[in-house]
């Protein structure tokens, strides 16, 4: 009897998991998967995320004085990413469905290196600007910073572009025909 109950619970769990996965997959494919953000959407989302981090930190008056350089540095990184997205969209529009000639592997590597260098410079600027502020944060503010900057991208959220800039790590945003993949 006990084995039958365990088997029944296992079958129910598998069925429920499959149903939830199927529902999530349908929602993602039909509601989220075909939506492309415009440059204005990206900028608006960045503004909202920066404002959320700022509000969530509940900075003291002394800490507030250290915020503007951090925000400016983060906005510089956001601008780089938005400009890349615009360039990618413009290239796709110019191709208008035509099969684009892929750059050779060496050109792709150089292009990727250029993008990574620009990202690295922006990340260093964020680190330099954030260091004085981060040193003044209490444990609660550091915990909230981690929570506010670890949103999940797969669920339509944001997986911490701000956080990766402040805490290290980055994805160089390489997509498209010259992504550097050999």
TrEMBL record:
InterPro entries referenced in this protein's UniProt entry, alphabetically: LTXXQ
Cellular component GO terms, alphabetical: periplasmic space
Signal peptide extent: 1-22
UniProt feature, compositional bias: Basic and acidic residues: 169-182
Pfam families, A to Z: LTXXQ
Name listed for the protein in its UniProt record: LTXXQ motif family protein
UniProt region (Disordered), positions on chain: 159-182
Keywords: Signal
């Amino acid at each position: 009897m006990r084995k039958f109950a365990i088997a029944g619970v296992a079958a129910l769990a598998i069925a429920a998991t499959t149903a939830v996965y199927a529902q999530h997959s349908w929602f993602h494919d039909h509601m989220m998967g075909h939506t492309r953000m415009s440059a204005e959407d990206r900028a608006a989302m960045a503004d909202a995320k920066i404002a959320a981090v700022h509000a969530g930190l509940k900075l003291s008056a002394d800490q507030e004085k250290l915020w503007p350089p951090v925000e400016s540095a983060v906005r510089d990184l956001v601008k780089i990413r938005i400009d890349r997205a615009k360039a990618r969209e413009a290239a796709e529009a110019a191709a208008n469905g035509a099969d684009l000639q892929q750059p050779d592997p060496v050109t792709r590597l150089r292009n990727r290196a250029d993008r990574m260098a620009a990202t690295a410079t922006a990340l260093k600027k964020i680190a330099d600007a954030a260091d004085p502020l981060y040193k003044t944060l209490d444990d609660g503010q550091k915990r909230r910073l981690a929570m506010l900057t670890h949103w999940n991208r797969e669920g339509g959220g944001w997986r911490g572009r701000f956080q990766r800039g402040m805490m290290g790590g980055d994805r160089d945003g390489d997509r498209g025909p010259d992504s550097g993949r050999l």
